[in-house]
Iron-binding zinc finger CDGSH type domain-containing protein
Amino acid sequence: MLVEGPVEVELEDGTVVSSDRFRVALCTCRRSRRYPWCDTSHRDRA
């Protein structure tokens, strides 16, 4: 899922992560090594 930035995401444990990039990809499959950001590592784990 692509989101226009900058963006802040609150994780389930209450931790807030942020990105100042103009567009970010959010991981929706939870397989990313950089969760909550998508790094396409899901392709290797399919």
About this structure: DSSP finds no helices and four strands in the chain. The longest strand covers residues 7-10. Residues 2-43 form one domain. The CA atoms of residues 10 and 16 lie 4 Å apart.
